[in-house]
Amino acid sequence: MSASRDRILAAAQANKPDELPLPEVPLFGGDATAERFASVLAGIGGTVVWLEGLGSLVPTLQQLFPEARNTASPLFRGTVPVDAQTSTGILAEIDLAVLPGEIGVAENGAVWLPEANMLHRALPTITQHLALVLDHRRIVATMHQAYAQLPGTGGYGKFVAGPSKTADIEQSLVIGAHGARSLVVLLY
Amino acid sequence: MKVALFVPCYIDQFYPQVGIATLQLLEKLGVTAHFPAQQTCCGQPLANSGCERDALPIYQHFVQTFQDYDYVVAPSGSCVYHVRKHFDKLDQTAAVQHVRGAAYDLIDFISTVLKVDTLPGAFPHKVGLHLSCHGQRGLHQANESEMTPVRDGQLRRLLASLDGIELTHLNRNDECCGFGGTFCVSEAGISARMGQDRVADHVLNGTQVLTGSDMSCLMHLEGIVRRAKMPIRVMHAAEILNGVVA
Amino acid sequence: MNHAIRADKFLLDADRTTWHDETLWFVREKRDKAVYGVPEFQELRELASQIKNHTLSRLDLYLQEFEAAAQANGVHVHWAADAAEHNAIILDIIRQQGATRVVKSKSMLTEECHLNPYLIQHGIEVVDTDLGERIIQFRDEAPSHIVLPAIHLKKEDVGDTFHTHLGTTKGESDPQRLTEAARQHLRAKFLAGQVAISGVNFAIAETGGVVVCTNEGNADLGVNLAQVHIAAMGIEKIIPRLTDLGVFTRLLARSATGQPVTTYTSHFTKPAPGKEMHIVIVDNGRTQQLGRPDFRASLKCIRCGACMNTCPVYRRSGGHSYDFTVPGPIGAILSPNIDMKKHASLPFASTLCGSCTDVCPVKIDIHTQLYKWRQVLGEANEIPASKKWGMKFMGRVLASTRVYGLGGQFARRALRLLPHGLTHATSFNAWAVARELPAPPKQSFREWYAKQPQPAPQPQPKLPA
Ligand code: SF4
């Protein structure tokens, strides 16, 4: 095994070109408004709903997801307590996960969701529906600003942009492939 | 300004009227071009087939033929592109460098060197413009849909300046026609299908006269038009422009 | 069998060819729209190209930096010189778990290494969880596109396949309902998966983490439910810094499908507590390609598929006509590095129109490399002998004015004299399959020119002695 390691590294060293410079990447500013974020997210199948402060979170969710029975969230007492040890069987029954997002990206509707906010790594994809709660002041223009603001990526983390989707059958778009069937971003 | 005319082999043999129109159009624009009779080919058919080495004597012959001219003008962007891009295989003597820089596609020469982008004259037909890849993507004679939605280019401007002309709005503005040199016989099936699709776009959108500045693509498209007996006339842009300018 | 023969088979079904062409052109148009919407897009392409060039120029160093960072994160790093070693390493990890059920998200590398048949042969159940991959796995076919693996199939084909394998109603061909059936079927597989294999879109030297981009969420679901995650990556997936992802994530999905970004851009850096993460770093011919100055830029590829969607040949010949894991223009410059004889026709399956080069988000000079591969193949005698000797003959003719004049005249006369049926017999002339030959004129341009009053003094060209 380490023989291959040494061989690969030696070949890479022998065959690589003379060193070329690493460019500095400008930040490329742009429109960082919640309006842009909302319209881009709508274009990829997600929805933005404005909260009148975090206090209105639970009633808003009840309006949006009247049929959600099994809910999980670090922001309020859901019906299912979830942590990193929760079993697959329980996770598979979750209807709605409500998780705090950290950064929103106006150009593509993505929201950064770090592991610390997920309760369980599988929760954001195994849940039938996903709601991300985001401070609208944390919306940036592009991915450059988003990465520049990330303190790090932790053990696991992801940008989520809209609901799970596929177009693998004849390029027809179908929402709800394997992950969450819907995504709503609750801005406050 | 000493200008030579390069007439690619297939134009010499099959489309002499395009060579004649090129010569006459240049004359009307105040340029007397000479046709050095010892010219042959730019070597592209060999090189594109993987026989660049066998093409080197042709490259040399090309340079010797044209080295004493300020410009070498050809009604075929593809050959020009080959000279500019692939003559890098020769020793870069002063003569080689000069000829590579001096080679111009006819329309590029009119636009860039003569700085002409409008012409007086009328051509009251619906004209479909075929953009040839080597002129467009290789020599940057027209915008590319890969980069911008704006359809602009040297020949488009020249044509648009004619009275009564209407330019066809194609569904695919700059898809390759499938000629591709020896590709047209080594991948005959795909080549034909590409050409048929290109012509269909013109038919669908009402082209009466199909034109372009590279006769090789037009030869292929004309072959398809004639086989399918379509009511489309194929003309090199030099023929249109020479016909309208008094 | 060469590309042209396989392409002709595809072309036989003219309506399906039309459909395939138009569907992929639609993806190209979505890409265009997304690209036009980003004013700095061309600048981003240039940055991406430079970052990749830089990385290749320090590849050995970045690989070591990545390895050290990954190990510090508690990740097991393995090195595989070739496909066989890659497969053996993965089987070994699975066996150490005593596992038999594997879920796999999309990875062109594992396709390249033929991992699935290898694992199945060794008693492991491997389930491809990307919808398109699952469809072709049921059908025992290879992907025909790197981003849209089942793009060669119509919904009716998928309906038949699902009827056979998932028991959907016969004749059901609604994409929504078929996708739902796959969702239910694959959920069960995800929940039961013991080991999850994923590909890698980007590996960050600075953090030791890997990034996987999907729309379906299948990588996230598989990895986060299984006990063990195995990420397989080619050595060229490295990028130096986390912030470089700003550039690549802005380019990838826009180029691939016209989306502003993939639904999930997932960063896997450390295993979850109590679980395991392995990264297998694979060479399999890549360092050799790195050593070919004319072709090393192909290692910049981020597998977006844009060059396929734009390629007028690919759209009309289908991915299987390339008979290589990665089809299309990029496949045609990667494949001869692997097996020059077998894939000798691929660099010729192009008009060299250059559209691939112009859509490529990392600015690989694809069509120039196609041209250069042709020269390598020519020198290595890997082009058909008839073509080669014909070209040698032409070379001599065209280098000599006198012989050339005779040849052209001869061809033109022959055209004029031979009856249409003979010059247009398809076996005689591939041109005539669908095209008329030009009508031969009475005189050539040079004959006409010789009769004109000659213009003022010409420069005296110097001719070789
Ligand atoms: S070569 Fe370029 S366009 Fe083609 S798949 Fe790779 S990155 Fe995309």
Q: Which architecture of the largest domain in chain C would the CATH scheme give at its second level?
A: 3-Layer(aba) Sandwich
Average predicted local confidence, pLDDT of chain A:
96
CATH class wording of the largest domain in chain C: Alpha Beta
CATH superfamily (homologous) name of the largest domain in chain C: NagB/RpiA/CoA transferase-like
Number of structural units classed as domains of chain A: 1
Report the radius of gyration of chain C as a whole number of Å. Answer: 26 Å
Instruction: Name the structural class of chain A.
Output: alpha/beta
CATH topology of the largest domain in chain C: Rossmann fold
End-to-end Cα distance of chain C, whole Å, is 47 Å
Number of helices of chain A: 6
Biggest sheet overview of chain A: 5 strands, parallel
In short:
Chain A has helices at 2-15, 34-43, 57-64, 88-91, 123-126, 143-149, and strands at residues 47-50, 71-72, 96-100, 103-105, 110-114, 129-134, 139-140, 156-160, 165-166, 174-175, 182-187. By secondary structure, chain A is an alpha/beta fold.
Q: Please, could you describe this protein's structure?
A:
The complex is a heterotrimer of chains A (about 190), B (about 250) and C (about 475). The termini of chain A are far apart. Chain A contains 6 helices and 11 strands. Chain A is globular. Chain A has one domain: NagB/RpiA/CoA transferase-like (Rossmann fold, 3-Layer(aba) Sandwich). In chain A, the strands form 3 sheets. Chain A has a 5-stranded parallel sheet. Chain A is α/β, with parallel strands linked by helices and about 190 residues long. Chain B has a 4-stranded parallel sheet, with helices on both faces. Chain B has a 4-stranded parallel sheet with strand order 6-5-7-8, sandwiched between helices. Chain B starts with a strand and ends with a helix. In chain C, about 55% of the residues are buried. The radius of gyration of chain C is 26 Å and the shape is globular. Chain C has about 475 residues and is of the alpha/beta class. In chain C, strand 5 and strand 6 (about 210-215) form a beta hairpin. Chain C has 3 domains: about 1-35 and about 295-385, Orthogonal Bundle (Fumarate Reductase Iron-sulfur Protein, Chain B, domain 2); about 40-285, Rossmann fold; about 385-445, no CATH class. The two termini of chain C are about 45 Å apart. Chain C has helices at about 5-10, 15-35, 40-55, 60-70, 85-95, 110, 115-120, 130-140, 155-165, 175-190, 220-225, 245-255, 285-290, 305-310, 310-315, 330-340, 355-360, 365-380, 385-400, 400-415, 420-425, 445-450; strands spanning about 75-80, 100-105, 125-130, 195-200, 200-205, 210-215, 230-235, 240, 265-270, 275-280. In chain C, the strands form 2 sheets. A 6-stranded parallel sheet of chain C has the order 1-10-7-4-2-3, sandwiched between helices. In chain C, strands 8-5-6-9 form a 4-stranded mixed sheet, with helices on both faces. At the B-C interface, helix 1, helix 2, helix 3, helix 4 and helix 8 of B face helix 1, helix 2, helix 15, helix 17 and helix 18 of C. The complex binds iron/sulfur cluster. Chain A: InterPro entries: FTHF_cligase-like_sf, LUD_dom, NagB/RpiA_transferase-like. Chain A: This is LUD domain-containing protein.
